[in-house]
Amino acid sequence: MPSARTMFGGTVRGGRPVVTLAIVALCVVSWVLQLATGGEWTQRWAFAPSVGLAEPWRFLTAAFLHSTSPLHILFNMYALWLTGPFLEQAFGRGRFIALYVLSAIAGSVGYLLLADPYSYSWVTAVVGASGAVFGLFGAIIPVLRRTGRSATQILVLIAINMAIPFFVGGIAWQAHLGGLVVGLAMGAGFAFAPRERQKLVGWLLPAGVAVVLVAATLWKYASVGML
Questions:
Q1: Residue 164 backbone phi and psi in degrees, to 5
Q2: Annotation marks residue 130 as catalytic
Q3: d(CA 105, CA 135)
Q4: How many whole angstroms separate alpha carbon 90 and alpha carbon 147?
Q5: Could you read off the pLDDT of 94-143 as tens digits, one per residue?
Q6: Which of 103, 130, 150, 223 is catalytic?
Q7: Distance between the two ends of the chain, CA-based, in angstroms?
Q8: b or e along 56-70 (b: 16 or more beta carbons within 10 Å of the residue's beta carbon)?
Q9: Percentage above 90 pLDDT, the chain
């Protein structure tokens, strides 16, 4: 028998949100390793524009690292738990993974695009799941609009969190912006795709976003003479 689908094309599943739980587990294990290795684990996987071209996996791995302060990882994991299960159920596991991964990468790309190669921002490492979390924040807005529900609360939450870096130092707002833009775009594509084209959009949209992120990254490195 055909499986039941949500209005966004995701397979209706019971039980726990396994993808969200897996992401939380990866972040927690990685944070413990950061503490246990005295920062060596962080240095190995953190992202900085100066090393991104030679070690491109850092664009993603940085999203599974956090500062040593428990507040950083607690806030991000709490925000992930608030939004992740809902979007995982709405979009299905495959599209949710694509949304999270590409939003995480977009956070690093956003930081890269706005970094000055002649300042400390080019060599300063950034860590955290905030780019991915902001991607989920962005994706949930069109989902709520599609279902006729108010998105005011999530918009206020986004506004508050976008303003915090201007009052508190050490926060990469560029990564927040990158994740938010990609999450909003992907969420809108998934939410408003016609029923008969939902599966096609589920493949083409992530592929298109990935191409744009790679192109933007290569353009930035070419502009500073690193290609």
A1: -55, -45
A2: yes
A3: 10
A4: 11
A5: 999 999 999 999 999 999 999 999 999 999 999 999 999 999 999 999 99
A6: 130
A7: 53
A8: eebbbbbbbbbeeee
A9: 78
Structure tokens that stand for 177 in this block: 């912006």
Q: Which of 10, 5, 2, 1 is nearest to 187 (CA)?
A: 10
Q: What is the pLDDT of residues 71-89, one digit of tens each?
A: 999 999 999 999 999 999 9
Pick from 92, 32, 98: nearest CA to 66: 32
Residue partners of 100: CB distance under 8 A and separation at least 6: 19, 23, 84, 132, 135, 136
Helix H, strand E, coil C: the string for 93-114 is HHHHHHHHHHHHHHHHHHHHHH
Q: Which residue has the tokens 């809902």?
A: 86
**pLDDT at position 157, please?**
83
Measured between alpha carbons, how far is 214 from 80 in angstroms, rounded to an integer? 25
Higher pLDDT, 130 or 161: 130
66, 72, 121, 176: the catalytic one is 176
Reduced to 3 states (helix: H, G, I; strand: E, B; else coil), residue 2 is coil
d(C-alpha 8, C-alpha 92), whole Å: 9
Question: Residue 188 corresponds to which tokens in the numbers above?
Answer: 């809108």
The DSSP call for residue 54 is: T
63 — phi, psi (to 5°)?
Answer: -75, -10
pLDDT of residue 218: 98
CA distances from 59 to 56, 95, 111 (A): 6, 20, 10
